[in-house]
Design a protein that fits this description.
alpha/beta, nine-stranded mixed beta sheet, about 35% helix
Length: about 210
């Protein structure tokens, strides 16, 4: 087994084992990214197709579905897939690795990745973003929330809500913005911030697919 396979396996096990704690802790969509969520929604007419990429316990899948969007949700964790299926019966929910999406080109109008893309190693990020761009239509809207740091690095970090440690890719803001542009996206906003009570500097990205 390659080291990176072992790392991703660790991420999957961590969320499977900590899924109940995480779901009990985060019961509603994160208020600290409300600004980007509102922009995302405002840019997508009701009925648009959204991919919730790394859906976790389904908090955003539920919100988008309640607002009238056609939501497909994926996650690497079997437990989160089960949670989201129960929580949002109207959504199409599947176990899938975001590094290898299997949807046809241009399937989605929006792609939402809230603190899930941060578990993709920098070495795999270009191909992952290329895949995101492929499944989005031209002009489609992309959102990502990530961990930010002075230098981009693959590190072990405690995950809030379940207090378990696993692999996280931290990003220097300019490094991620450059990769995003190379993958065919145009930035709408790139916000560096810290949440109240949070441990880590964060980065919120909103972009359109060229």
């Amino acid at each position: 087994m390659k080291k990176d396979d072992a790392d991703y396996g660790h991420v999957e096990r961590t969320y499977d084992e900590g899924s109940a704690d995480y779901g009990d802790f985060f019961t509603q969509p994160h208020s600290f990214i409300d600004v980007e969520r509102k922009q995302f929604i405002d840019l997508l007419p009701v009925g648009s197709k959204i991919l919730d990429c790394g859906c976790g316990p389904g908090i955003d899948t539920e919100r988008f579905t309640d607002l009238g969007y056609n939501v497909t949700a994926i996650d690497l964790s079997d437990r989160f897939v089960e949670f989201t299926k129960r929580r949002v019966p109207a959504a199409s929910v599947h176990k899938m690795d975001m590094r290898t999406l299997v949807y046809p080109d241009g399937t989605f109008d929006g792609l939402w990745s809230s603190f899930s893309l941060l578990h993709v190693h920098a070495a795999d990020m270009k191909s992952t973003l290329d895949g995101f761009r492929s499944v989005l239509r031209r002009g489609g809207i992309f959102f990502a929330a990530l961990h930010r740091a002075p230098q981009s690095a693959w590190v072990m970090r405690l995950i809030s809500g379940m207090e378990r440690e696993t692999h996280v890719q931290e990003w220097k803001q300019l490094d991620f913005e450059a990769l995003l542009s190379a993958a065919g996206f145009t930035l709408i906003s790139s916000r560096a911030f810290e949440r109240d009570g949070g441990r880590y500097p964060l980065l919120s990205i909103l972009a359109t697919a060229r």
